[in-house]
Amino acid sequence: MSQQHNKSKCPVLTTAEGAPIGMQQAMTAGPRGPLLMQDVQLLEQMQHFNRERIPERVVHAKGSGAYGTFTVTGDITRYTSASLFSEVGKQTDLFVRFSTVAGERGAADAERDVRGFAVKFYTDQGNWDMVGNNTPVFFIRDPYKFANFIHTQKRLPDKNVRNNDMQWDFWSMCPESLHQVTILFSDRGIPASYRNMNGYSSHTYSFINADGERVWCKFHFKTDQGIKCMTDDESANTIAGDRESHQRDLFEAIERGEYPTWTVHVQIMTQEQADQFQWNPFDLTKVWPHADYPLIEVGRMELNRNPENYHAEVEQAAFKPSALVPGIGPSPDKMLQARLMSYADTHLHRLGVNHHQIPVNKPRCPVMHYMRDGHLATAETYGSAPNYWPNTREGAPEPEPKFKDPAWKLGQTIVDRYDSTEDHDDFTQAGNLYRMFDEGHRDRLTTRIAGVLGDARQDVQMRQLCHFFRADPDYGRRVAEKLGIEIPEEMLNAARNA
Question: Which residues are catalytic?
Fold first, then answer.
């Protein structure tokens, strides 16, 4: 006699489309017969199962995550206009992902490795991703070496095993790695848990204040639980008993209500100080000495909520240094400049073009843009609104000049967003071409244009007519006549004499 569940307490099982399912047995032609293709419930389950796995991250594949809050405790508004730092006491929701760097998803948590330390701040002016590590430096400073370095941390192409020779061969050819190698093999090389390690931006970023003044900065997340690390023997014993030691520790600590916290600091460097710094201040293999550039307390980060579904919230979390907000910008750090593209690009590969619509990645503020469609687009933020810019549609989003980044002066070069419509003559050559046409050609040209321009709104027609008149008065006059638009004689005379 089969056991029956108390159906009054259980929700009804459905297909992915929401249709109720009556039985969970395969449909066959007779008790011992073959399966039927019409068993769409079974087909749906098998097809989805075959696609449950997405590509793992090439780097930082093994990770753990949690939600929390950031609370401002120190005023740094003289350095940045970023809204999350706007006043002492302000809170911003966030999501953190900790990870190992070299290992695959099945790697042990307690291995000797650098740890990823990525924080997604859901600010009221967009998501800011602080994508760092538990070390203040990295192995290389040239992005051309990055993929090659990661290859040395992976597996040999023939034996499919990790190999110390290729790792050390690379490091011995890249002396800039020595600082990070020394940290990695020091007593801090194996954190006892994610709760017991610091986080660093490692990269230099820029702060821009309300007056458009730029300074350089580095971020430091100091653990309030204290630094604790493992010896090699402790690591080996931990791995032998639990390959998910750090994952388990973080999840269970939050579940018990023992919420881990970090005190957040910044270091600040002016351009004048950068010009006199004894090393390149944008070199990822170097630190800024605290004695010269002291830590300034900014706030406190607390992790207080576990994810409900690892795949949806941790595996699909997409962190990218290009997720910046007004008041926080990049620097000339070559590695950072490359990561601005690389991280966003890998999420496009792993998750798709609309990965920002996945709940864990979704901004908590209004989103208005002209990017459209693609895999799994929901269109919930734009619906039938225009999908092009510039436009003159009522209520369409448009840039706000106050959020424009101030220009950079890099040596003799000014880095800025230059308006391509300024100081350009867009009419003379078009007019010269028009004047090369004979009478019949001019008539056919203006007839064709009027035939389609007539479908546009009148204000659009008038704006376009101005362009035709600037190119040649006769050009504008003919199109206007064929549109049935009467142009005052004084305007025609002005166009002829322009």
Answer: 60, 133
